[in-house]
Every structure is written in structure tokens, then in C-alpha cells.
Design a protein that fits this description.
Blueprint lengths: L4 H27 L5 H24 L7 H25 L6 H35 L8
Helix pairs in contact: 1-2, 2-3, 3-4
Bound molecules: protoporphyrin IX containing FE (2 copies).
Length: 141
């Protein structure tokens, strides 16, 4: 497998979310206060699981992690997720004013996910089609 800087950034971020998500899980278990469980669930799923998958997919198919769309996807996810989860934490603690921020943050995450889907459809298929068109053998990484 290749090393690539974008995948490495995803893996490092994923590890941070994993540590924070599990720490929150342990705190919830220890305290018996499960009120932040949706924050815990989404730190683990939008952070640890999704980011580790972005990193793994970007390692298997490096072209998915290159270029301006990949850069926009990276930053939108990395801004949208913490903003949404911080606002969700406040909302669950009774700060009603945080609700619109959850909406805006989750739309940013939603757009990042659409960009990721676009990258998957255009980069992975396009690579193998281009290789077939030019008669090259497909390089499996
Ligand atoms: C030592 C590690 C962990 C601990 C102690 C822990 C603890 C907890 C606790 C106490 C809850 C609340 C349950 C409830 O009130 O219904 C919960 C919910 C949840 N956790 Fe964890 N968790 C851990 C790791 C993880 C990981 C790694 C993931 C995902 C990759 C995860 C995903 C979830 C999800 C999705 C829920 C919500 C389940 C539901 O809808 O009821 N957790 N966890
Ligand atoms: C911006 C993206 C997302 C938004 C806005 C969102 C929103 C929500 C909402 C509103 C709920 C119901 C919460 C409740 O009834 O208290 C929920 C639950 C859940 N979502 Fe998400 N979700 C997102 C992404 C994801 C992703 C990527 C995954 C999995 C990889 C996921 C897994 C879950 C699970 C397992 C639950 C049940 C546990 C819980 O209630 O926290 N979500 N989500």
C-alpha cells in the first residue's frame, strides 16, 4: 500500500475521534448519564469510522484523494463534523439556540458526503475505463 499525505491525515484524525468517542462512551458508562449518546455515536461514526474509511479508500485508490474536489471534501467534512457535534452537545445540554448550527453543520457534512460520492464515481470508474481505452494494463494498488 502507498503512503499518501491525505490518507495519513484522515487516519490521524480518525484516531483522535476514536479516542474522544470511546472516552465519552466510558464516561457515559461510568457516570450512568447517557444523555450525550447521540454525540458519542456520531463522533465514532462520522469521525472514527467514516474518516478511517476515507483514508483506506484513498489508499486503495489514491486519485480519490487528489485535487480540488478532494480538498473541498476534506475541509467540509473536517469543519462540518466538529461544528455539528459541538452544537449537538450544547443542544442536548439545553441550549436551544444551537439548533440552527446543527442544521448548517449537517448540511456541510451532507455536501462533503455528496462530493465524496462524486469522487468515487468519477475517479475509480474513470481510471479503469481510461486504462481500457488506451489498452494499458490496469495497475492494481
Ligand atoms: C469502550 C468503548 C465504548 C463504550 C464504553 C461505549 C459506551 C456506550 C454507551 C454507554 C452508550 C449509550 C447506550 C444507551 O444509552 O442506549 C453507547 C451508545 C452507542 N455507541 Fe458506544 N461505546 C463505546 C464504543 C463505541 C464505538 C467504537 C462505536 C462505533 C464505532 C460506538 C457506537 C455507539 C452507537 C452507534 C451508540 C448508539 C446506540 C443506540 O442507538 O442505542 N460505541 N455507547
Ligand atoms: C450529517 C450527517 C448525519 C446526520 C445529520 C445524522 C442525524 C441523525 C439523527 C437526527 C438521528 C436520530 C437521533 C435521535 O433520534 O436521537 C441519528 C441517529 C443515528 N445515526 Fe446519524 N446522522 C448523520 C450521519 C450518520 C452516519 C454517517 C452514520 C453511520 C456511519 C450514522 C449513524 C446513526 C446511528 C447508528 C443512529 C442511532 C443512534 C443515535 O440515535 O445516535 N449517522 N442520526
Amino acid at each position: 500500500m502507498n503512503d499518501n499525505p491525505r490518507a495519513r491525515a484522515w487516519f490521524r484524525l480518525a484516531a483522535v475521534y476514536f479516542a474522544v468517542g470511546v472516552a465519552l462512551g466510558v464516561l457515559m458508562g461510568a457516570s450512568g448519564d447517557h444523555s450525550l449518546f447521540p454525540v458519542h455515536a456520531h463522533i465514532n461514526l462520522l469521525g472514527w469510522v467514516s474518516m478511517a474509511l476515507f483514508g483506506l479508500i484513498g489508499t486503495a485508490y489514491p486519485s480519490v484523494g487528489i485535487g480540488r474536489v478532494a480538498c473541498a471534501q476534506f475541509w467540509m467534512h473536517n469543519i462540518g463534523v466538529p461544528v455539528t457535534l459541538a452544537a449537538l452537545t450544547l443542544r442536548l445540554k439545553g441550549v436551544d439556540a444551537a439548533e440552527p448550527v446543527i442544521g448548517v453543520g449537517s448540511i456541510i457534512v451532507g455536501v462533503s458526503v455528496l462530493l465524496f460520492a462524486w469522487l468515487i464515481y468519477t475517479r475509480i470508474g474513470a481510471q479503469s475505463r481510461a486504462a481500457q481505452d488506451t489498452g494499458e494494463r490496469r495497475v492494481v494498488i
